[in-house]
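Deliverable D2.4 — example input (structure tokens):
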């Protein structure tokens, strides 16, 4: 019996061909489906690994599989291949909406130690997308989603980082390969974003890439502007709500609404796993 939040047979059939296979040199792997269901349980509930139910096997096995597939890029490859399938049937809408959301980091997310012999056990926060403010530790999740609110690219920064500098890296991270010959698609038809991304350098870069922009001007920019205002379609701007709805769906996973992972790569992998489940619905 498939329990709530576990992989359905249809979802498992989509994922199975994309998973790595054991080479036999390190023993037999525990069944992938059981382990993935355990990872999903942990991320959905935000519980400690040691509280993982016995039906999913040893918690160390699930944690190690999550860590190993994060390091070798398996989760990102699965997300890419799911996008390829939908793009091939014309299911991706290339009016891309961009936004960010701050996630409070639990105290257990701090304390990641620097790697290497020279570190000598020093604690590390820089490089793990953890920012500190009066509200405590936080991480900012930047998303670019398609017209149906499904993530195309995901970036993490410290919570105090600005939104505008991440727009170009977000667009650069979009790469949807084609089933046949040809380059991966990386340029959307249009970018829809709020006033946080309204900067002359951003608009110039989008024009250089021949990407249409639907971004409102800030009030201070209107008073200093010389010449014609940038083109802005209010009706198209209303479609930006898809990225807000995507954040709403992601934060239903308690392990994402609050960050517990010490390593930014692990937390991002958990966001990618949730994004895969959104694409496979």
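Example output (designed residues):
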């Amino acid at each position: 019996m498939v329990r709530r939040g576990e992989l359905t047979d249809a979802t498992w059939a989509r994922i199975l061909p994309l998973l790595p296979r054991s080479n036999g040199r390190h023993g037999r792997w525990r069944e992938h489906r059981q382990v993935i269901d355990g990872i999903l349980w942990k991320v959905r509930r935000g519980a400690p690994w040691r509280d993982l139910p016995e039906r999913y096997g040893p918690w160390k096995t699930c944690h190690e599989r999550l860590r190993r597939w994060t390091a070798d890029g398996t989760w990102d490859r699965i997300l890419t291949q799911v996008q390829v399938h939908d793009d091939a049937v014309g299911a991706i809408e290339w009016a891309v909406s961009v936004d960010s959301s701050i996630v409070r980091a639990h105290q257990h997310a701090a304390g990641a130690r620097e790697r290497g012999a020279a570190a000598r056990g020093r604690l590390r926060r820089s490089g793990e997308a953890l920012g500190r403010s009066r509200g405590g530790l936080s991480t900012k999740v930047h998303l670019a989603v398609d017209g149906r609110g499904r993530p195309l690219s995901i970036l993490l920064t410290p919570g105090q980082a600005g939104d505008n500098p991440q727009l170009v890296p977000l667009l650069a991270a979009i790469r949807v390969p084609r089933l046949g010959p040809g380059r991966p698609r990386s340029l959307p038809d249009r970018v829809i974003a709020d006033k946080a991304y309204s900067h002359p350098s951003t608009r110039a870069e989008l024009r250089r890439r021949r990407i249409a922009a639907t971004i409102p001007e800030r009030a201070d920019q209107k008073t200093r502007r010389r010449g014609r205002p940038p083109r802005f379609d209010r009706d198209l701007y209303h479609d930006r709500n898809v990225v807000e709805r995507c954040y709403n769906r992601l934060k239903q996973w308690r392990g994402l609404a609050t960050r517990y992972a010490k390593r930014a790569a692990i937390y991002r992998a958990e966001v990618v796993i949730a994004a895969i489940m959104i694409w496979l619905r």
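The radius of gyration is 20 Å.
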